Amino acid sequence: MLKIAVCIKQIPLVEEANFDAATKTIKRDGPNVISAFDLRAVSLAMELKGRHGAENTVITMGPPQARDALNDALAMGMDRAVHLEDRAFAGADTLATARALALFIKREKFDLVLLGKYSLDAETGQVGPEIAELIGAAQITGARKLNIDGQIVTAERESDEGFDEVEAALPVVITCAERVAQPIKVKPGASDEAKKKTIFAVRASELSGDPKEFGLAGSPTWVQEVRIVETPKTECKFIDASDPERAAAEVIAELEALGALSHREHKRRPVQAIRRADKRGADLWVGCEIDLEGRITRGTLELLSRGDEIASRLGGALIAFGFGGAIVRHAGLLTSFGADKVLAIEHPALEPYTPETAAEAAATLVKLHAPWGILLGATERGRDWGPRLAARLGLGLTGDAIDIELDAENRMVALKPAFGGNIVAPIYSKTFPQMATVRPGVLELAAPSEKKEAEVEIARPEISAPKSRLIKAHSLLDTSIVPLEGAEVVVGIGTGVGGPEGVAQASAFARVLGAGMCATRRVTDQGWVPRQLQVGLTGKSIDPRLYIAIGVRGAPNHTCGLKRAQTIVAINNDADAMIFARANIGLVADWNAVLPALQDAFQRRLE
Hints:
Blueprint lengths: L1 E6 L2 E3 L5 E3 L4 E3 L4 E3 L1 H17 L1 E8 L5 H9 L4 E5 L9 H15 L3 E5 L10 H9 L2 E12 L2 E7 L3 E8 L2 E5 L13 H5 L4 E4 L1 H4 L13 E3 L3 E2 L8 E2 L5 H15 L25 E4 L10 H17 L3 E6 L2 H4 L1 H6 L4 E5 L9 H15 L3 E5 L2 H14 L3 E5 L1 E4 L5 E7 L4 E7 L4 E5 L16 E5 L8 E8 L13 E5 L6 H14 L2 E4 L1 H5 L20 E5 L5 H4 L7 E6 L12 E4 L2 H16 L1
Parallel strand pairs: 1-6, 1-8, 6-7, 7-13, 8-12, 9-12, 16-32, 17-18, 17-20, 18-19, 19-26, 20-25, 21-25, 28-29, 28-30, 30-31, 31-32
Antiparallel strand pairs: 2-5, 3-4, 9-10, 10-11, 11-27, 14-24, 15-24, 22-23, 23-24
Helix pairs in contact: 3-4, 4-12, 7-16, 11-12, 13-16
């Protein structure tokens, strides 16, 4: 019989969010719910119990009211509930949380550990990979399908272009994507029965004799302040859509007046052409990624662009590092965007990719060279192995940052959004190197320098045998549509398009415009478009000169990814839809009534 642990987090409702000014932590004394991704983990555990037989234990760490979340999970059918409850746990960051959970999990010898892919309050997805590293287990993050055959787990893992087929031997830590299982509907009377069950309390002293491993004391990251971000409101010009052809012509005229149909000239900061020398404790390392077509990703170039700026202030070098020989082939491009050294990490165990070998290889070299900081992309892959590296080295990691700053003491300040992007926390680290993952699309590209020169170094560290295996990588992206990253024009779709047929019409519109496409989280949850096109809090950020929103409600968790969009046209049949507060031009109409006329108008304009 399988022993399954499900780690859940109770989070405050967004509208109830408030902060403790002294501790700089989220106050959780209001209404709380189980994080949506964690509900999928509970559902998957129950499905696996039905298929294979299992003892399911639900675990949470938090204040007394966290018992409500455990009762809810028991009502869904979980067998046993464990509450890590102690004042010593208060104020824990992701590493201190993972450490406490890992100590209990390791003691109980679970075969399978399930968590949600993210928590939706602080938008963190580090705890799962950090637990995996701390207990020495394999991991599969963002699992959308899962099967167990004896001791082998096979799964489909969400990737930046589609999904990967992977396998690993038990024990395995799995983080669950939305589509891995549907949430369980609690049966009548189950909640009352659940409240009669025992919840086992675990104190910090039962896990470790050193209380400094937990809570604020054991947290390598800390928040200096919390900034409330006011969502900018735009004066929306509404156009009467009763006559679609006339309305389309008006839209084109308004866009002409706003300059939204003219090519945008970017004034980019030039890269420093002079090569900076390595300096222990002052170098900045940037992790490089390559897509399935063998190209360096735009997100990598964005990180190098900001890294070039930071390295010049620190007095050290900018090191571009990556796994495998392909990095060497791109040395010229990486150098032109600021790299002073290109470091290729090679070993047979690194190809194909696995998170545990990537983390181990990087950790060996980080300990050897002692850089000041490490920046990785907040991509599916960066979020997969980056937290594992942080746990291996005991480092603080800020995930999904939207900017990187330096303070007066040259410390890294990673700006982290939460609660729909309405709150931004500047996060510092007590440990070195300082680490952050940064969302693609939030940093400006620099103007590359063809004069820049860099050293190319190949490192071959010793690495343990992989705990998992990448079987095959699959792309789901439509190559007939302009890539989303860096697109000047983007067509965005919400659930208002109705389904796959509406998506097809919007896609045809995007092709006419030569535009990229994106979607809200609800659309990707439905599986209408790949997850890789999701824009918003749990997706990407974009900066087009023109964004056309079709059937998009305009919730903050989507519009926070549009903050750098210059001009927005919104089509929605609800005059009170939130998207109009962010739009420059609004059409209150059924999208399928006006889109054909808009498509014809744009086509004539382009001709």
